[in-house]
Backbone:
């Protein structure tokens, strides 16, 4: 069955520290997509990245980077030099393949608190 | 701003009542998804519509129903409300269907059942 696990429930760091959010997924499909979303205190869900299962190249976008490893079924997210504005709940999600089209399976989320 | 509009932003109602949540997708998007975010269940997919037709169903209760209208806006109807239905309900839209399309989320409707 498809599943996304974010083992870290809460993380607290001090500004300028680097932080990595872990995501482990399970799927029986060979073609799938992985996503990260950010939910700031205001509540909306903000799309951060999409990665398909055939592209294991790491991606960097400013202070954000993502490490996708199929061998360990992981899609980890690193924030470099964290800032207070990074405080939010971060969700990893998997795009389900069987019998459905495009709906997402979310992990439970990791709440990141960045203290000044 | 994702371009997905949900109304109302907040809703407080009593147990046993019925409410309707509304979603306007981004311009050009044909797919609409509904998700429920609760403290105990997390973010769960409820249902998807594509161009007016139901495409996929998740953990949606029988007391809940949805539809997508010809102008592509969607409504989620929740009836016989229970305290446990209190949650944040998100609508998302995407251009098409398929696992490679990214979904953009609205700001959500926070439903409180008292």
Residues:
């Amino acid at each position: 069955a498809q599943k996304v696990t974010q083992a870290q429930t809460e993380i607290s760091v001090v500004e300028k520290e680097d932080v990595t959010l872990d995501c482990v997924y399970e799927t029986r499909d060979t073609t799938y997509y992985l996503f990260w979303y950010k939910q700031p205190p205001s509540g909306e869900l903000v799309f951060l990245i999409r990665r398909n299962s055939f592209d294991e190249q790491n991606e960097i976008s400013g202070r954000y980077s993502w490490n996708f490893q199929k061998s360990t079924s992981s899609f980890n997210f690193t924030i470099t030099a964290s800032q207070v504005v990074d405080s939010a709940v971060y969700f990893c999600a998997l795009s389900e393949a069987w019998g459905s089209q495009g709906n997402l399976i979310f992990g439970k989320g990791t709440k990141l608190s960045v203290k000044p | 701003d994702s371009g997905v509009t949900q109304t109302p932003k907040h809703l407080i109602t009593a147990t046993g009542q019925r409410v309707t949540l509304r979603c306007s997708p981004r311009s050009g998007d044909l797919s609409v998804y509904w998700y429920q975010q609760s403290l105990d269940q997390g973010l769960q997919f409820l249902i998807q519509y594509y161009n007016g037709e139901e495409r996929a169903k998740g953990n949606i209760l029988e007391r809940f129903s949805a539809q997508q209208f010809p102008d592509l806006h969607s409504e989620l109807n929740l009836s016989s409300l229970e305290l446990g239905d209190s949650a944040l309900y998100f609508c998302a839209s995407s251009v098409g269907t398929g696992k490679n399309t990214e979904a953009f989320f609205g700001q959500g409707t926070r439903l409180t059942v008292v």
